[in-house]
């Protein structure tokens, strides 16, 4: 086989392998959006639980008892 033909075949094969290994941008974007969406709602839910559990906020300047 002529060296130029061998190089052409290897370049073509490398191009095919890169195309197969490249992440699909639309799919990657969808995954990021889904992760962000789930993370956002998890933070909202956690915040709502904390607010519900803690009760009303203490008055500014009010002294709070120190637990011993």
Structural description of this entry:
This protein has a domain at 24-52. The mean pLDDT is 77. With 68 residues, the protein is an all-alpha fold. The protein has helices spanning 3-21, 25-54. The termini are far apart.
Question: Count of DSSP helices?
Answer: 2
User: What is the number of beta strands?
Assistant: 0
Portion of residues in helices? over 70%
Q: Describe the largest sheet.
A: none
What is the rounded distance between the termini?
86 Å
User: Which H/E pattern describes the elements?
Assistant: HH
Shape: rod-shaped
Beta-strand percent range: under 5%
Task: Report the radius of gyration as a whole number of Å.
Answer: 29 Å
Arithmetic mean pLDDT: 77
Q: Decide which structural class fits the backbone.
A: mainly alpha
Which stretches are low in confidence, meaning pLDDT under 50 for 5 or more residues running? none
């Amino acid at each position: 086989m002529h060296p130029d033909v061998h190089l052409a075949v290897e370049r073509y094969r490398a191009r095919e392998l890169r195309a197969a290994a490249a992440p699909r941008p639309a799919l990657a974007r969808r995954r990021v959006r889904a992760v962000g969406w789930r993370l956002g709602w998890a933070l909202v839910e956690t915040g709502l639980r904390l607010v519900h559990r803690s009760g009303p906020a203490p008055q500014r300047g009010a002294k709070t008892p120190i637990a011993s």
